[in-house]
Amino acid sequence: MKIITVQSELKKEIELLKSQGKTLGLVPTMGALHQGHLSLVKRALKENDALVVSIFVNPTQFNNTEDLVQYPRTLERDVALLQTASDAILVYAPEVADVYGEDVASVHYDFGGLEHKMEGQFRPGHFDGVGTIVKRLFEIVTPDYAYFGEKDFQQLAIIKKMVKNFKIPVVVVPCEILREENGLAMSSRNVRLKPEYAEAAPFIYKTLQDAKVMFGTERANKVTEWVESQFENHPLLKLEYFVIADIQTLETIENKLENTLYRAFVAVYADDIRLIDNLALN
Ligand code: PAF
Description:
Rossmann fold; binds pantoate; Pantoate--beta-alanine Ligase, Chain: A,domain 2; single chain; alpha/beta; three-stranded antiparallel beta sheet; 20% strand; 2 domains
């Protein structure tokens, strides 16, 4: 497995692959890889001749410095995990300077309002940071296909919008959320949960599932009120938001419409660890 830290070197490898007519996949990650990432990697390996996995904790998407400092960095373990899928993966694991040069700042984007809802509301500047790094990775790697997990559904919607706005020649492939046996959505942050919080956290998915059942017969605001009351009564988990939204616009809904798909989105604090999840409702 080649671990490349410098983009000029990566570009040379990519030029060679492209000259051989090979299709190229990209799985962008911030490392601390788990089975969820591995499922994206396996799919990308199946659907492409060659694969780049980027491992880069992108500083510009963190609105909370402490979160950036605490974010797990486990390159050796990550590489060992990738090795279980294939030895032919190109790992791009740059330092900040290789990606940003001296100007570690994000570009400001207009994603048609998608960026102001939910995560955007609670993590100001987050999607400018995500847009900046993903666009840069697309420019460096020039992938044919790029794979993103639906756990970050809003991120996925924004990346699709960016690809359309900038006419970037890449197919964005959404990948289903992978869950622990207890239902907790897989996340790099899960390893930081203290035992009592790890035990409590599956309540998030359980509540989403109950909300889905309720959504079959009740109005959206009734479901939202019910979810909020469930978390108010919870001794360990603190709800930041619960939103039922149209999957196209990410607008919170008042009333259900025919032929429209909805999803429930949630962000919860388990101690100081912020967990997000979402579930298709229809
Ligand atoms: O989803 C993530 O891990 C990150 O937001 C991404 C897409 C790798 C950009 O840093």
